[in-house]
Write a structure and sequence with these properties.
Layout (H helix, E strand, L loop, with lengths): L11 E3 L2 E3 L3 E3 L15 H12 L4 E3 L3 E2 L18 H16 L3 E7 L17 E2 L6 E3 L6 H6 L8 E3 L4 E2 L2 H20 L4 E8 L2 H6 L14 H4 L1 H14 L4 E10 L10 H12 L6 E5 L15 H9 L3 E4 L5 H9 L5 E4 L2 H4 L3 H7 L37 H6 L1
Parallel strand pairs: 3-4, 3-15, 4-6, 5-6, 6-11, 7-10, 11-12, 12-13, 13-14, 14-15
Antiparallel strand pairs: 1-2, 8-9
The protein binds flavin mononucleotide.
Flavin mononucleotide binds next to strand 11.
């Protein structure tokens, strides 16, 4: 194809699905569903608008798989856990398809970094091992919204509860939960699912050697650390069949460890890639805030390239992609096959058309229009009128700031 960015605007076969170009919307949590996890009409408009902007595929925001506290990571996070959720997602999927884009559902489990308001009183989250996160609850507010709410950066620290080690039965149940949610996603018409094993959440807690201290077959080596997610992928495949996409998202950093590095660096990444070789995933998805980095001084090869080569799987690359030239560099250097773009799409739903035009544009990290507030009531126990959360943030401190 002729034009300024020939590779970027060429088609790609992902599994059995043809994508019209290499531009994908990265998953972006908006905390904008109804309190019971049902996606809203506002979300339909938001996703449809971005589909119309020329993306070949959208990966939804991280969505919980089961109506169970502990699985839910954020207030007003959408779920794909029941019939009501399916009907609401179907509207979104239909609108996205009508606007010319494919869409897959990102499924996640928060593990030890779930917002404590999403847990029962005195309940512990589960994780790969018994560990405790020290981090901040991530709000999706803009600075202006934080100001309006009497908050100011830095984001409030949260005393995350100590996690308990997942039993083998817990691991099995989580895989089954993902498979059942994937089945529901197919009823809603999704083109596939992405299993979230990045950014600090439960499956990442297995993959990150700093957090996975297990001595059984789910810990101790790259292949063991990847076992929980690979078993999940394989179960999801059994349920959704070969015609649908399964992507697995990986990263080195997490929401409670933005500078995260794997002990073992690129060697660990290589082993991890090999572990996915025989999995039933169609592709991997490398997440970072800078697609070029690997955070290992011994090598300058982007981590996405290392994992792509060792896994033999197509790779979606994400992080700091803002211009068409970035995409061409990723695709021509063999670092990836598809480019996932996050923050530029907040402000610029037409981003693919904009970069294709070659015009300079004003990159804005957050756009108010599509940043939607989480619940104001900090004592609100998520969402099913279950017991009240025991997390009681000191609101007076926030107001003072
Ligand atoms: C507000 C916000 C919400 C995000 N939500 C998710 C999410 O639900 N799932 C996920 O895998 N990554 C999530 N991410 C990470 C992005 O997908 C992406 O990795 C990150 O923004 C870097 O890519 P970019 O430079 O293209 O924005 C989120 C990022 C931001 C800024």
């Amino acid at each position: 194809m002729s034009g300024k960015f020939p590779k970027t605007f060429s088609s790609f076969d992902l599994g059995t699905i043809k994508l019209k170009n290499r531009l994908i919307m990265a998953p972006l949590t908006r905390q904008s569903s109804h309190d019971d996890g049902t996606p809203t009409d506002e979300m339909t408009a938001y996703y449809a608008r971005r589909a119309r902007g020329g993306l070949s595929m959208i990966i939804t925001e991280g969505t919980y798989s089961e109506d169970k506290l502990g699985c839910v990571a954020y207030l007003n996070q959408p779920g794909c856990a029941n019939e009501k959720h399916i009907s609401a997602w179907k509207k979104i999927v239909d609108a996205v398809h009508d606007n010319g884009s494919k869409i897959i559902l990102q499924l996640m489990h928060g593990g030890r970094v779930s917002d404590p308001r999403c847990l029962y009183d005195n309940d512990s989250p589960i994780s790969a091992s018994s560990t405790k996160s020290s981090g901040a609850v991530l709000y999706t507010d803009t600075d202006e919204e934080m100001h309006n709410r009497g908050l100011a950066p830095p984001w409030p620290e949260v005393n995350f509860p100590e996690a308990k080690e997942a039993s083998k039965e817990d691991i099995k149940n989580i895989s089954v939960g993902f498979a059942e949610a994937s089945e529901r996603a197919m009823k809603a018409g999704f083109d596939g699912v992405e299993i979230h094993a990045a950014n600090g959440y439960l499956f990442y807690q297995f993959i990150d050697p700093k957090q996975n201290l297990r001595k059984d077959e789910y810990g101790g080596s790259a292949i063991n650390n990847a076992r929980a997610v690979i078993e999940t992928v394989d179960l999801v495949r059994q349920v959704i069949g070969d015609e649908k996409i399964i992507s697995v998202r990986l990263s080195q950093d997490g929401v409670d460890d933005f500078e995260g590095q794997w002990p073992g660096g690129v060697n660990y990444a290589e082993e991890l890639g090999k572990a996915f070789r025989s999995s039933k995933a169609d592709c991997l998805h490398w997440s970072s805030f800078d697609w070029k980095d690997n955070r290992d001084n011994s090598s300058e090869v982007p981590m996405s390239k290392i994992i792509k080569e060792s896994s033999g799987l197509p790779m979606i690359v994400n992080g700091g992609i803002v211009e068409g030239d970035d995409c061409e560099e990723i695709l021509n250097s063999g670092s990836g096959d598809l480019c996932a773009v996050g923050r530029p799409l907040f402000a610029h739903p037409d981003w693919p058309h904009i970069i294709r035009s070659g015009e300079k544009y004003n990159w804005i990290e957050f756009d108010r229009k599509y940043v939607i507030k989480p619940s104001y009531d900090y004592n609100y126990g998520y969402p099913l009128n279950l017991k009240k959360s025991n997390w009681n943030p000191d609101i007076s401190i926030r107001k003072k700031r």
